[in-house]
Specification:
The protein has one domain: Rossmann fold, CATH 3.40.50. Helix content is about 40%, strand content about 15%. The chain contains six helices and seven strands; from the N terminus they run βαββααβααβαββ. The strands form two sheets. The chain has a five-stranded parallel β-sheet. A two-stranded antiparallel sheet has the order 2-7. α4 packs across α5. It is globular and about 35 Å long.
């Protein structure tokens, strides 16, 4: 089981070579992240699929959907995709790695991880699946 949920913006930076994702431990992402990444017209789908294959994909189920709805009600500034990602982290008791700390800090029970990037010149550790 993963201990860290990776937000879309961390994945984008990794895929564009801006900042590499540290692959220590088991990582997960929300199915929302898959949709957001595939929405990018410049996405290289084979590369994207290989990158995501090294992590656990977490679906939106009833518990996540209900938690996201309550989050959206309680923190109206959260957009629904962000609320779904936060709810995924909360339901699965995961820390969220994101660059969007300003908006997510409004969710007091959410654990945030900053600095999950490394300089793009350093090699990326691959997940040993």
């Amino acid at each position: 089981m993963a201990d860290l949920l990776v937000d879309t913006n961390i994945c984008v930076d990794h895929l564009k070579g801006i900042k590499r994702l540290r692959r220590s431990g088991r990582l997960a992402y929300s199915v929302i992240t898959r949709a957001e990444l595939l929405a990018d017209p410049s996405a290289d789908e084979p590369t994207l699929r290989r990158f995501l294959a090294g992590m656990d994909e977490l679906p939106i189920d009833r518990r996540v959907a209900e938690r996201a709805g309550r989050l959206r009600r309680d923190v109206p500034s959260l957009k629904m995709p962000d609320a779904l990602i936060v709810a995924t982290a909360l339901v699965h008791s995961l820390t969220l790695a994101t660059k969007n700390v300003r908006d997510f800090r409004r969710v007091p029970e959410l654990r945030l991880a900053e600095g999950r990037h490394r300089n793009s010149r350093e090699p990326v550790q691959q997940n040993p699946n």
